[in-house]
Fold each of these.
Amino acid sequence: MIRFILLLICSICCACSSELEDTQRETGKDADEDGAFYVEYRLNDFEIDQSSFQFDSSAVILNDLEEASGIIESRLKPNYFYKHNDSGSDARLYLYAANGNQAGQFKLEGITAIDYEDIAINTEEGKDYIYLGDFGDNKEKRKTVSIYRFQEPKFTVAQEYFRDTVNTIDQIEYQYLDKDFEEAVSYNCEALFVDPISRNIYVITKGKSIAHLYKITYPYSFNKINDAHLCGSFTIPPNQITAADISADGKEILIKTYEHVLYWRRDLSQSVEEILQTSFIRVPYLGEPQGEAICFISNGGYVTVSEQNPSVKTKFNFYKPK
């Protein structure tokens, strides 16, 4: 009789354990003892939501960059956009009007360009700062990488093309730290944003199968190597993460892959880490030959852009809220 009762208890425990595992597999959520989360997003479970945003218009980009890899809208003059090249270029930002015309360029004095992959902007104490991520690393061999921070340059829109220089630039050099490794690890990264609430910097590795969310906690150092700590990991099959952005008020987040755009609406009582563990909605995206750039725009929508492709004219693709 005692043996029967023990077997019955064991059977119940196993069933409960199996049910819990099935639930975790269904939700795709888990966390390690240090609090880093893991989420498996199943895109096939999410239809494209047509109720929040819709395609607005396109503008053919003239004199476009060969490998445009990041975009932000100017905070000083809305409807103007900063873009930058990918690897193999020099340290410059290019300014475009929303109609696709290139208006000018800024030389970034005193810094190098190894592999710029994304760009962000944040308003801090009444000033607008641009963050430029030099963290591309296709071979995953760079021991440290950098994000450059500088105040958005003032410019006057004129009929003639202009050139200017940014002279004061801070370097946020950092390394990726992971509790599973004794030394810093290397990743290829293409996504960056700065939370306007906490001023923490978030970067997302491109991920061949699993992408990682890392955080550089504010205040960061401009004269020593910062540590980027692992917040969590996720899969977004079948694509790699190529860009991200957060709205100026911190209430909306976009993450882009080559084929999809994912959107989160955030309650400001939630941290970035918490919101990215919740369900997203898939928002409209036309598809581009190699779309690696996205940003929110001042009308509440967003814009995407691709690298150049010989068979397709490069365009700004604008989406507006409904």
Note: The radius of gyration is 22 Å.
Amino acid sequence: MLKRVNWKLIGWTLLWVVCIGGTVTLMSFIGVKKRELKCTSVDILIPGADNFIEREEIDQIIREGNGVLVGRLLQDINLNQIEKNIQANPYIAFAKVYADMDGVVHIEINQRQPVLRIINAGGQDYYVDQDGLKMPVSANFTAHVVVATGNIREHFAGRPDTLRTKLARDLYQTALYLKKDTLWDAQIEQLVVDERNDITMIPRVGNQRIILGDADSLEVKMENLLIFYKNAMPKVGWDTYKSINIKYTNQIVCEKNKGDSGIVKPVRSLTPADSVRVSRQVIDQLVEKTILDEVAKDTEKKPAQPVIANAAPRERGAGQTGAATRNQQEKPAERKTPSKQEVPANKPAQAGNKPNNKQRKI
């Protein structure tokens, strides 16, 4: 009779009963401790050195929504509500709030990272973050990002929102591309939109204006500009061209600067702004060195060479000079002397046609 009993099954059943009972007992002890556990401190973590929002502002958000946390029972603190209140801040992209068994409430915050600052035609000033959402400027911190000005009609309602117009999206894509590239992030400092909604890039080194147009085929345009920087700029200089037009794919149109007018400017006294200008020149020289180092590097993938056209006006007489050059090249062919076979052997040479021995020796 005892041989028919499955002792193995009974053993496994008892083991499961003991495990479940132990788990329930442990959870009950944890629940009792949690009900009696009080908040001992609040730990706020804001990664990064550039902060749009400070710890004091987070404390204020918590006090306004939930009061003082330290000394209160954890079961009386609504952690989910604290998360929602913190994430409502326009500078915060994500917030995580939780408590440990020591009574410490942890708050982890991820800030929005701006890549573009826009000053629209109406004078509104706001940022665009890396996700393409608008966000307000901050009195605590100013982000060092490219600035877009000019004929921009994108409105900002004061809260995070998506970009509405194609021009604003093109500006965002351009700024995002510049931010990811160390060379262009150091070289381009401003984007200007004209009346035709063409985007013009203002460089830090050089006085030229780089006409981008829109963000269509942006990578190809910037690769063409890099080739131009690498092949042309070291030879002609950074201030040779007034504008560089890269809005057409696989074509670069340049316009040269006009010559000096010859007018001597009066000498003026030095002002405090001169020291700022000198400091700016030093910074520009450092940036120029960085750009030259980046340009010197061989790219792994070399695109097709773009066609570089010079848009400078033709000077007077340029056509005549070209014609004269062609005539000079053709002239030696006209002076070809006849061979001896062309002169009849039985006809004596005339006095005027008698060869000069001295000329032969020469």
Note: The chain is about 40% helix and 20% strand.
Amino acid sequence: MLELQWFAGQFDDLLNRYLRIAVTAEGAFLARFDADWHCLESENTHLVAQSRLIHNFSVGYRVTGRPEYKLALVKGTDFLLHVFWDHEKGGFYNICGRSGIVADDCKASYGQSFALFALAHAALTLHDDRYRQAAFIAWQTIQDRFADQNGGLLPLLTRNFVLLPSLNSQNPLMHLLEALLELQKLDSSRTVHKEVDRLIRFVVCHLRDKDGYLPEIYTADWQPCDRQQGGRIDLGHHFEWAYLLSQAVHLGHAEEFLGVGHQMLNLALANAVDSKDGGVRSPLSMDRSMEGAKKCWWEQCEAIRAILRYIRAHGKHDLEPILEQIVRFVDRYFIDHKRGGWYTCVDGVEIAPADQNKSDYGKVYYHVIGMCLEAFAYFLKGEATVVSRST
């Protein structure tokens, strides 16, 4: 089961599918499709979905060299800049229509981070200075408008950058780090490098608890919320942090961050892995209970990606049996082998409900593409090259 072609098959199937059904003439990427991949929303799309699909087509073009992916990448990135960007006040809107109408003009730090991530990827893949300049403008807007006095990010603002009621979360910080790790490749001044260090230290030193766990939800002054306020420990995000900290060290950041990455990976593995039935579960409650934990698609991807990285780059070969188990579980219970795509959640070891939507604003398989990219590096002993079956 743990074979290059398994990952290449997922990579090709999903990229080709979205190329066929999601890319509009205007450059908007449609994201909402039902269990049979019938379109549920043909006008609007979300900033996060648009940005994640830009990432997907960027990776697709970089790995395969297919011109169709390049065309989709350019169209989608241009739409991001022409329609989602607020040309009067700055920042990216939440939801826009393919006709150019703004459907939700609020601005969330989570979405801004993904837009920056998309622009950095487009600039790196296409060597296009327009996208590079746009990425740095987007980052400056995040610093000017979303940075709070404590070192974190404000969660949700109006079009005019007035704070809306919302709890803080580590999630926008994590995805800003993900974006900045790409942006620093475009920055010869090392300014971004310094911000990456600051951001990591803020999370590592100020947000983790005494046991090393990173709570998900916080008050305005970055105190962790209790269970009644929605507080929890998202183990899927612990896998993501483990991966990102490894990547930060790979890109020249402090070696000490890798020790934190190992710790976060170990905490995730100790709690998330279902050694009896397979797969990984999340979240962990603030009192360390797994009550209410579920097995959802994206956590499986992040677990697989992190484990692949720590085996490949850090010699954690003792994790190979766990890796095999999770991949086998995913293939059996998450992948719809008849209609394509992944189910969202499964209950125990039962097949997920057949009517689960295959795609939505938050589910355009960026987690799968990232997992596959790490798998290509794992099997090819380095950076991914042309490996997919579509070439």
Note: The chain has one domain: 4-380.
Amino acid sequence: MKKLVTVVNFILIFLLLLLSNTGCAADTKGRIAFRSSEKREKDTYIFSMNPDGSDLVELARWDPSSMPYRNVWSADGKTLAYIDYDEGAKEAWLAVVDADGKNRRRVRDVTEMRIGSMALSPDGKTIVISADSTRVTRIETPVGNTVRVDIIKEEDMDLFTVNVQTGELRRLTDTSGGVIEKFPSYSPDGRQIAFVERIDTDTPQRGDVFVMDADGGNRRLLAHHADGWFVINPEFRWSPDGSKIAYAIYNMPEVNRMSVSDSDHHTDVLVLDVKAGLLTNLTDTDSPYVVNIEPAWSPDGRKIAFISGNVTEGFPSLVRVVDGEDTVELDQRWPAWTPDGKGLIFTNPINVFELMLIDADGKNPRTLAVVEGIPVSNPIWLGGR
């Protein structure tokens, strides 16, 4: 009996030591998506693979001018919405595809629509798009025996939804006066849409943050940004419970003046309380050249990982995981949370073909997968957007 107890104790101690050395275990379920330019000079494509690097498939060409990167996935990570360009026929289609590359299907011809941005609903059934609604007015004024004709073009972009099953288009907003509505993002439950609205067309990124019901009703202003503040990388990141939105904002005090020194510029990560409309500056940067971008919520909503660095030293490579006032610094780029929230995945900055995993406390970095011949950028563990 004593021998049996000794053996059991030995096994338990061995397992504890093993777990302490390996850190958080990687969940092998689901798929990982990433961007890559592969060997093509101009175009970037979205790929997906199993967590161990197997079953690598090319899903779609990524168009940064109209496609966000995270908000085009369904909440379960099984469906990607994208724009399918047919260069030969000179056509563009809204399309969807499964994360494993199967069931590729065109939803609606958008060749004649200028798509500004888009997002897929959490259930994968609806695509919201920002599309051109420019109004052209013809004004005829009698002048003697002739008529003077003036054409007034008023730039406008409104929000529409497209039914993934039927392709039916439905207008959500109908604004005038040069109002541009872009960068829509669904709340986790699919009931609300956040978006940016701007009027000054000379500053394409500046704008205020609005939210409305998914059917276009109950529209309200959440955050107004003063001149010199631009919503950048405007892919709103909702917290898992839908109570907050994180996004990055760019500070440029002298808008559109070439004499502005780069040292006046910096970016911050903001957290917006949706119900109260209160803004919290998570980084509160006042130092020149500092960049804070790409916030990502942990699955439990308690932490945010984001990129933070100094542009004078090259591309920012410092990541901080923030939980209240506690900060853990990870010297890695473009992190994304694992589904269980115990770790983050990232691209090895020394070997861009290697996907790595690190514990959320910044310890125990290790290889997750190596992709032959295709550089890995901006990895996402699907299902945890």
Note: Residues 2-22, 255-262 have pLDDT under 50 and may be disordered.
